Amino acid sequence: MEKAKQAVSESSVIVIGAGIVGLCVAHELRKAGYEISIVDPEEPGSQCSYGNAGAISAGSVAPLAMPGVMKNAAGMLLDTDSPLHVPWHYWLRAAPWLRRFVASATPERVEQIAQALQDLFADALANHQALAREVGCPQRVVQTGQLHLYRDAAAIGKDTGGWRLREGHGVRFEQLDADGIRALEPAVSNAYRAGIFMPEQGAVTEPFRYAGAIAQAVRQQGVKLIRDRVRRLQPSSERSGAWQVECEQSGLQAAHVVMAAGIWSAELLRMLNLRVPLESQRGYHLHVADPGVSISRPLVLADRKVFMVPMETGMRISGTVEFGGLSMPPTPRRSELLGVAAAEGLPGLRLEGASAWMGHRPCLPDSLPVIGPVPKLPGLWCAFGHGHLGVTGSINTARWIAQGMRGRFDMARFAPFSVARF
Q: Residue 152: CB partners within 8 Å, gap ≥ 6?
């Protein structure tokens, strides 16, 4: 393989991964004056950044593992049609991750996680709106609020812990009765008679197009987008403080590397003897170009863990959590269940011609991403593991890293997200 021979600039950065997080990192670093190359084998924004629900949920400070998680999850784990499914053949492999997940559900740890997420998500909507203006698509980030739907008030009671946690961290919401729901969203089924409306939440009206606009903007700013697969990264043997990234077709060097490769980040870091308990929570969507009903904001069927979101290209129905790793093929039944749930929530919904998709959400057991410098490996930074909240967390992750690399950030804020916690 031909290796780069030129001197390594102190301002050179290789970003591994061209999803929404990697693109935002590249954008912020380029604004700060760094020389950026993004390396990814796929088209920018074409993986999880393509198929997500587009929600900007700064209020999602409650971790997935809440106190009493096993009581709530045990039944779902045994039901193949539940919103959470672990195939029998994957139980042994998933067990260490699930043990860490349960261990993170103590009241003290939940409060620590919520505080960290509140810090990371602060002003996420306003910052995305600013980014959208910068890359020429201001109409693509909107504040419509989110409406969480429940069958009745008693069902809301089962989620009291999560809503109290959000309220304690400054998240504004209001409880609605059946009339209040229909006033906002007339198409919702009468089966849902209680709701919680979060007016300050936002959404991206088409995630892939948003990612594409950022990619186009950074390319115009001189960022190199390289379609290649990283095979190895290591500290350079030729120069202390530099990094060598070996790809299938080329060799690259830079003073800094930012690992933003989503679910594939753990495999690459393993080459440096860094063990990260990253697991794919395989998510599905149905996309309907002509749904036959109209909604004005993201709707969440709380009992089914299903998002229904209006987009420029139709309606997206997304959700479910399935373990199974990277090699197991998609499970068609998971997509079908999304359609069943959505049709119950929106009785006039037409599903004809819906397209199905499955993607790999990169999830850590404590619901916190890995962000910041890697101890004892100067020049290596992490920006992955945002789980179900990649869009929400992407912009501030990028700003933190750009500020941290310039020495203009309180590095203690990285501590809850450090790879060293594992």
A: 193, 194
143 close to 296: Cβ distance less than 8 angstroms: no
Average pLDDT for residues 307-331, to the nearest whole number? 96
Buried b (16+ CB within 10 A) or exposed e, 339-359: bebbebbbeebebeebebbbb
Of 116, 53, 42, which Cα lies nearest the Cα of 396? 116
Q: Count CB atoms within 10 A of the CB of residue 190.
A: 9
49 phi and psi, to 5 degrees? -70, -15
- CA angle 410–385–130, rounded 5-degree value: 60
Contacts of 304 (CB under 8 A, 6+ apart): 83, 319, 341, 345
The answer to whether the CB of 22 falls within 8 A of the CB of 107 is no
- The answer to the question of residue 165 being in a domain is yes
Rounded-to-integer distance, Cα 217 and Cα 418, Å: 30
The residue segments making up the domain with residue 334 are 61-120+140-200+278-363
Which tens digit of pLDDT belongs to each residue from 172-212?
Answer: 999 999 999 999 999 999 999 999 999 999 999 999 999 99
- The pairing of beta strand 224-227 with beta strand 35-40: parallel
The label of the residue with tokens 């760094």 reads 34
> 152 phi and psi, to 5 degrees?
-160, 175
Q: Which of these, 63, 69, 6, 61, lies nearest to 35 by C-alpha position?
A: 6
How far, in Å, CA of 329 to CA of 105, rounded?
31
Work out the mean pLDDT of the chain and round it to a whole number: 95
Distance CA 41, CA 58 (A): 30
pLDDT at 2: 44
Beta bridge pairs of residue 258: 15, 381
**Residue 222 and residue 257 in one domain:** yes
Strand order in the sheet with 55-56: 55-56, 202-204, 141-142
On whether residue 5 sits in a domain, the answer given is no
